[in-house]
Specification:
By secondary structure, the protein is mostly helical. It is 59% helix and 0% strand. It has a domain at 1-39. It contains three helices and no strands.
């Protein structure tokens, strides 16, 4: 009977530890799982990712960190 009790306690400890790790590392684990799902998806084409342009400031003479009120001073 003691062996069964010890086994149940050990299994419960492993399950609670797994749940604690899942809760503590949820953002990191979700990103990793999404990356794995994306890489295993045969319909996914990384060349089709549409991303924002690197240069969001269309005026090449103005600096993005300087506002128009600061430039006038």
């Amino acid at each position: 009977m003691a062996a069964v009790t010890a086994a149940v306690i050990a299994i419960a400890g492993v399950i609670l530890g797994w749940i604690a790790i899942e809760i503590a590392c949820k953002p990191c684990l979700e990103k990793g799982r999404e990356a794995i799902d994306r890489s295993l998806n045969p319909a996914y084409d990384p060349d089709e990712d549409i991303r924002a342009p690197l240069n969001t400031n269309p005026d090449p003479h103005s600096h993005p960190a300087i506002s128009s009120t600061q430039a006038l001073k």
